Amino acid sequence: MFNKVLIANRGEIALRVVRACQELGVRSVAVYSEADARAPHVREADEAVCIGPPPSSQSYLLGDKLIEVALKAGAEAIHPGYGFLSERAWFARAVRDAGLIFVGPPAEAIDAVGSKTAARQLMISAGVPVVPGTTTALRDAKEAAAIADTFGYPVLLKAAAGGGGKGMRVVRAASELESALASAQREAQNAFGDDAVYVEKYIDGPRHVEVQVLADMHGKVLHLGERECSLQRRHQKMMEEAPSPAVSPELRARMGETAVAAARAAGYVNAGTCEFLLDRDGQFYFLEMNTRIQVEHPVTELVMGLDLVQWQLRIAAGEHLPFEQKSFTPRGWAIECRITSEDPANGFLPSTGRISHLHLPSGPGVRWDGGIEAGSEVGLHYDPMLAKLIVHAPTRALAISRMQRALRELVIDGVETSRGFHLRLLEHPDVRSGDMTIQWLEAHLDELTRGSAPDDTIRIAAIAVALAAHQDKQVRATPTAADSTHSESHGASWRAVARREGLRRE
Amino acid sequence: MKYIVDIAGQRLVVEFDGTHVSVDGDKMSATLESIDGTPVRLLRVGDTVHRVLAKRDGARGQYALDVDGWQFRAEAHDERTRAIRDLADASRASAGPSPLVAPMPGLVVRVMVAAGDEVAAGQGLVVVEAMKMENELRAAVAARVTAVRAVAGTAVDKGAVLVELAAL
User: Fold this and answer.
1) Active site (catalytic) residues of A
2) What is the pTM of this model?
3) Complex ipTM tops 0.95
4) Does domain A141-201 have CATH number 3.30.1490.20?
5) Using H for helix, E for strand and C for coil, what is the string for A213-281?
6) A4-103: which CATH topology?
7) Closest approach of A493 to chain B, Cα-based (Å)
8) Which of A420, A468, A491 lies at the smallest CB-CB distance from B54?
């Protein structure tokens, strides 16, 4: 194992890696921008080095600087976390060229799956299913029909320059193809000034299901089951769970074998993730491979009972994976909510400010992976994700009620957060029954953010604000602080009465 | 005591003495207790306890509330203050809608209206980029644009006036 590792990241994932290092007896070197000088990851690491001003282009993205700091500090390896430089092949290569170890896959593997078109070809040759379709523009309806016949209906016509559903048509039979193509081309021309249209297999009710893989340097590649990540807004995941309600043990084994084949084809080493689209019939299609530790890795850790970040370090240090595939069966259910500093009631606008009070949920089966504490400033320089709240319980239903309990315990005062939104999400019948697709969240966003509270809650809130306004008025009426112990009579009597009531009840 | 509460588009009358409260006539026991050293207050209504964050938000009597994970903006005043406010509000109503201001520092990406335009409630006026995300800022009420202060490509501070609006 290494003696010292540099962590080229910030926030919760930097702290997560520091903790893994501490538990493995590895010294950790944190880096930070001027905006993060007082961040928890800086304080918890054994050493910390300031690498520049707040903008990430002048700090966390300076690969050469990070390598220089690592060499100077005597670190043997660099853990890139997620985001920033974690999936840049040039950085992995530069780290290696400097005589250091990149805690992640080799640069060649990042290259192999980095470009979508190259990855698609690689996966097809490895026998990994991809969404069937063309990658060049259709000439005419005849060509479209010939291609559609190779994988069957329904098919999706899609503008090359597309977006927002414009130039998109679902075609359910060959007879509709000609007129659908003409109108898709017209729409694409009007919307984007480019009438190029592709055809691909239409995936009905697609879910985003991804498979965790772990590969050592000695040729062993294992999969650690799937994560369900369909609940996304603007391609940002909001809530993830493991296992997926749509995956049977038999499907898990098939998807897992496919993910292992994909990782082998890419020459993959370390922790990685294969993203798939899963349709209603249990057909799945490779989307892309993420060559880093994922934000949502804790749900896999909880149901599989191992520490993925520690294994990243062990694998990078050359250790053998001592497990067999058959030892990985998900135990119970885990759910993660990404707590962000966004205001769901206000179009998810980022919210900034100082966290004046923080009360963290605890108790059985609750985990908090956060990078904030009371006093933290939340600015606009970095990603709005403040922390991840993760729960583990024997069943999905119990995990949902455990998450609801934990979210209610959580108090973050000072910035707007997504906490209330997650509570609404977990109350929705579709989420509770596990019936969701990648379009579900966008389609239900208004209902979730603009829906009004139940009447009972509004009445409770009205009582609370009336009593609070009255108490605050009493406090204001108090002449001086010195007098307050005596003359804050009204507020004090509220409290005294409450205590008496409480005692009488026992 | 009698308080008039404006919340979630409703006006509720909350009457209380030291131990009981009635909302629009329904009476129940209720107490509100602060937890020292935290902004959290515990509200006991009947047999249930609710965790409440009630923070002053703007003028006196205006609060941002979090009750059981629901957020509210509410205004609570005693009868006399409420009556005075209502009179003041009535005279201010003719002053028209407030201008669109930047809710956070950021970069103006697009301005989608010009002076003289009539805009509908909820219509996008300006797109501001912050935290690498584009955020569309919308009109709160239907209005006429009287002046556009935002310039695409320029940075704005929190609270900067982007678009001036007048009543239709």
Assistant:
1) 292
2) 0.84
3) no
4) yes
5) EEECCCCCEEEEEEEEEEEEECCEEEEEEECCCCCCHHHHHHHHHHHHHHHHHCCCCEEEEEEEEECCC
6) Rossmann fold (3.40.50)
7) 8
8) A468
